[in-house]
Specification:
By secondary structure, the chain is of the alpha/beta class. The protein contains six helices and ten strands, in the order H-E-H-E-E-H-E-H-E-H-E-E-E-E-H-E. The strands form two sheets. It has an eight-stranded mixed sheet with strand order 3-2-1-4-5-6-10-8, with helices on both faces. The longest helix has 18 residues. Bound molecules: NADP nicotinamide-adenine-dinucleotide phosphate.
């Protein structure tokens, strides 16, 4: 009886342990990235944060994680990060800051090449509603100067989709202010004509959900939360 209990416990533990391979997070010091790191740590994943030498790590303070330093705009530095550990998944949550829009396809090219060379981990990309051709679904939306950024984000998506790597793309529409608590009501929709608001904390929760669920793979998802305010001009 006791031996059977041990076997059952081992069986219950094995898949759970197998699910929690190391995860590399790009943009880990940012508003979304730090939420993702926190959620991963809480779920038991070993996390490596890719940070620039001068990145402010304060959002990650107190978290038991590893760091690798580099610049995503440097292909060799991204490759070195991927070579350092056998990652189960890579999460791309960076934002260009003051860099040109070409940042998005440029860094995706580096991430894809490095992932192809080092174990083909799953790539979870945080993208934007309206990226690439998706902008045509929202003729009413006043994207303004975001239009060129969305085109660049579309290029990044296409690079990932065409890479042959296992991927998940989670697009966000309107992000609530940093620090807005998770509502617990956000969900992933396959309706690409849907744009709503979402919190970064909920996006982090949905990221970990997809990490556990291979049913997310090979798809573009729109993260939406029907209960949050959403500007009329985007409807
Ligand atoms: N729809 C909306 O309302 C909305 C609003 C804002 C953002 N977004 C999107 O949401 C996603 C996350 O944005 P966020 O505002 O949470 O990001 P964020 O706080 O601006 O953080 C950006 C992250 O990217 C990192 N990064 C930038 N350039 C890098 C480089 N060359 N090498 C390595 N790391 C680099 C930054 O590192 P450092 O700490 O070193 O700077 C930081 O960790 C992005 O896709 C963004 O476009 C959407």
């Amino acid at each position: 009886m006791f031996r059977m209990l041990i076997v059952l416990l081992a069986l219950a533990w094995l898949p759970a342990a197998a699910e929690r391979g190391p995860v590399l997070v790009f943009g880990a010091t940012g508003q979304l990235g730090a939420e993702v790191v926190r959620e991963l740590v809480a779920a038991g994943y070993p996390v490596t944060a890719f940070v620039r030498p001068g990145s402010d790590r304060s959002r990650l303070e107190g978290l038991d994680i590893q760091y690798v330093t580099g610049d995503m705009l440097r292909a060799d530095q991204v490759a070195r990060a991927l070579a350092a550990r056998r990652y189960e998944a890579v999460i791309e949550a960076s934002a260009r800051g003051g860099a040109p829009d070409s940042f998005y396809p440029d860094v995706m090219r580096h991430v894809v090449a490095a992932a192809q060379a080092h174990g083909s981990p799953r790539i979870i990309l945080h993208g934007s509603v309206g990226a690439g051709q998706n902008i045509e679904k929202f003729p009413q939306a006043p994207f303004g100067r975001m239009t060129t950024t969305l085109a660049a984000k579309g290029e990044a998506e296409a690079l990932l989709i065409d890479s042959g790597l296992p991927y998940v793309i989670i697009r966000n529409g309107i992000l609530m202010r940093d620090g807005t608590p998770a509502t617990g009501h956000a969900y992933l929709s396959s309706n690409h004509a849907l744009m709503r608001s979402v919190t970064r904390a909920d996006l982090a929760r949905l990221t970990v959900m997809c990490l556990r669920d291979r049913g997310c793979d090979g798809r573009i998802w729109h993260a939406v939360d029907d209960r949050l305010p959403f500007p009329d001009r985007y409807r």
